[in-house]
Amino acid sequence: MPLRLTWACTFPLPRRTRGFFPPVKLHYHLIAQIIRSLRDIFVDRRYADKVVEFAFKKHPKWGSRDRRLFAESVYEVVRHWRWYWHLAGLPDAEHNQPEAITEERLWYVWCAYWIMAGHELPFFDEVVHVRRGAIIERSKQEVSPAIQASVPDWMEARLNRELGQAWIAIRATLNQPAEVFIRVNTLKTDRRSLKTRLAQEGFITETIQDIPSVLHMKQRYHVFGMAAFKEGLFEVQDASSQRVAPFLQVEPGMKVVDACAGAGGKTLHLAALMQNKGKIIALDVHDWKLNELRKRAGRAGVDVAETRLIEGTKTLKRLTNYADRLLLDVPCSGMGVLRRNPDAKWKLSDAEIDRLIIEQQDILTRYSAIVKPGGKLVYATCSILPSENEQQVQKFLAAHGAEWTLEEELKINPAETGHDGFYAARLARKPAEPTPASAAVPTTEPSAE
Ligand SMILES: C[S@@+](CC[C@H](N)C(=O)[O-])C[C@H]1O[C@@H](n2cnc3c(N)ncnc32)[C@H](O)[C@@H]1O
């Protein structure tokens, strides 16, 4: 029977912000939940954000410090998993083999994290064999950059090949905890009013100069619990991501298709930029994501977005030559958002990225027909890999350069901005020749039938 003791110690804060923090009690059940959640992520291969959300729902009585301790511990261990596995004295070759990730080993990995965060180990049965000195000793030994920076070998090789020296700084940035940014919903408020309202409620935010829709949350608040969120005054969205919708150059009254809309982060932003005038058709291959989009649109007061599930080629064919603007926020490796989703490091593979590259080119090629002559599209990813970004655009232009031209590219380097890594390219379709063929361009609304 494991001892269930409560242990007073200080709270682990991210390296950059560590400083004075009042001691909190470390409950056995909280650490046991961290271990169970790590098992869910590494053995059952579940998404870290879903696992954390599930634990919060399971423990509604946790206060904000418990929630913070829990979430930070899970994310820090996931982020530096290979490193802590190594410090725990476990065989590196097994760090990502679900069958080798036993509960006993998960406790050891957590201990490595806890000790490296500057704490004493608690008196729990599971950790009595752990030797603090051995962990500290291992942390001083030289290991490969991939182990030290906690990335898989295949990823280290691919990123070195694709980015060269730039990868070193990006890798370090992507190992930092993500900060929280919100997008002001200009359909309901403006940045100054929201900033003032949040300050009155005790939430401190900062503006960012060149992105007019952003507020930076200065601390980790439970944003989804805020009244202003429930009233639809803002959405949580990284600063880089907020640069994509304006890049499409939409205007009120336009016909816009957001073809990989997901849960609609960018659809809602497009609607705000269009002042809720015109039409946005939001497509996706997953109905549950579109359901979420509809809920969010309701909260945000967005009336111009219509969702359509892509069930086959017909959905796309009906939209041929329809849109003034098309957003292709394609499925990607997510290599630019590892700060937010560090578990992706342990779930991705080289083969999966190669598969995504084929899918992205297919989407770009087939869906570009949705844009009417004279219209524009934006191809976007939250990746930093040239093979998913500029090389895709160049490949498309090599085949379709007679009809399309590249207007502008946006490359957001996380190491330079401190925000997520993003890529976007805006392409313009040649205007129609004044021939009878142009009469084929539909001027009426395409049916959803
Ligand atoms: C990067 S996510 C989109 C995120 C979304 N635009 C946002 O801002 O919240 C890519 C989306 O593409 C969708 N998807 C995958 N394959 C697709 C396809 N063949 N056609 C359209 N959407 C697809 C995925 O379901 C996913 O929701």
Automatic annotation (TrEMBL):
The lineage of its organism: Bacteria, Pseudomonadati, Verrucomicrobiota, Verrucomicrobiia, Verrucomicrobiales. InterPro entries: MeTrfase_RsmB-F_NOP2_cat (IPR049560), MeTrfase_RsmB-F_NOP2_dom (IPR001678), RCMT (IPR023267), RsmB-like_ferredoxin (IPR054728), SAM-dependent_MTases_sf (IPR029063). Keywords: Methyltransferase, RNA-binding, S-adenosyl-L-methionine, Transferase. S-adenosyl-L-methionine binds at residues 284, 329. SUPFAM superfamilies: S-adenosyl-L-methionine-dependent methyltransferases. It comes from Prosthecobacter debontii. GO terms for molecular function: RNA binding; RNA methyltransferase activity. GO terms for biological process: RNA methylation. Residues 428-449 are annotated as: Disordered. It holds the Pfam family RsmF-B_ferredox. It comes from the Bacteria. The keyword Methyltransferase applies. Residues 170-430 form the SAM-dependent MTase RsmB/NOP-type domain. Belongs to the class I-like SAM-binding methyltransferase superfamily. RsmB/NOP family. The active site is at 382 (nucleophile). This is 16S rRNA (Cytosine967-C5)-methyltransferase.
